[in-house]
Write a structure and sequence with these properties.
With 200 residues, this protein is of the alpha+beta class. It contains six helices and nine strands, in the order αβββααβαβαββββα. It has helices at 2-21, 79-92, 96-100, 116-125, 140-150, 189-199; strands at 48-51, 56-58, 67-72, 103-108, 133-137, 154-156, 162-164, 168-171, 177-181. Strands 2-1-5-4-3-8-9 form a seven-stranded mixed sheet, sandwiched between helices. The longest helix has 20 residues, at 2-21.
């Protein structure tokens, strides 16, 4: 009886791990929310966001696993698509288990025009896996604060476009910046190594 029960538990655990690796179920992480955050954690920022499905979340909820973060805007025709390509190529260099341990967060710098509906359409057009990719918006003031703590610079232009830096940022499980790259279009090998180490 006990042997059968143990085998059943092992089968269920292995099945869940396989589904996670395939991206078949959402990945969640256990976090001790009572543990104090490091002083240099970006999760010290009280940022409330909304994802492409219209779900509200606090950025600190990403605590407990490494996260790749990029800031972009959907109407960008050149640089931002290359930023997304670099994120996707970085993710493609990881093992299934490493991908299961990693989140990807894209935050718009144009929350006025990038509504939830626009973010959802962009995520679908780019075929961004909602199990691992969050495309999000927040208010203008919080967007500016988040960019500041991430070291991302941007400014609006008269024609509605933005000048902005294009860094991809790796956050560790506690929200500290653990790596950064400005390479676009494809994965930066040195950055991939940092991501793989964090996602193990």
């Amino acid at each position: 009886m006990n042997r059968t029960l143990n085998l059943t538990k092992r089968f269920v655990c292995c099945s869940l791990l396989a589904l996670l690796a395939l991206g078949a179920v959402p990945v969640t992480w256990a976090v001790d929310a009572s543990a104090p955050l490091p002083t240099d954690s970006i999760y010290q920022l009280k940022a409330q966001m909304t994802d492409q499905a219209g779900k509200s979340f606090a950025i600190a909820e990403r605590r407990g696993h490494p996260v790749l973060v990029g800031m972009f805007y959907t109407s960008c025709q050149f640089v931002c698509p290359m930023l997304v390509d670099a994120l996707r190529d970085t993710e493609s260099k990881l093992t299934p288990q490493e991908r299961a341990n990693l989140g990807v967060l894209l935050v718009t710098i144009d929350p006025v025009r990038d509504t939830v509906a626009v973010l959802k359409r962009t995520a679908e057009q780019r075929e961004l896996d909602p199990m691992h990719w969050t495309v999000a918006r927040t208010d203008t003031k919080t967007t500016r604060k988040l960019a500041a703590v991430l070291g991302v610079q941007y400014r609006a232009l008269p024609n509605g476009d933005f000048n902005h830096t294009t860094d991809l940022i790796l956050l560790d499980a506690d929200g500290r910046i653990a790596g950064r790259t400005a390479q676009l279009g494809s994965a930066d090998p040195a950055f991939v190594k940092q991501v793989k180490t964090a996602a193990q």
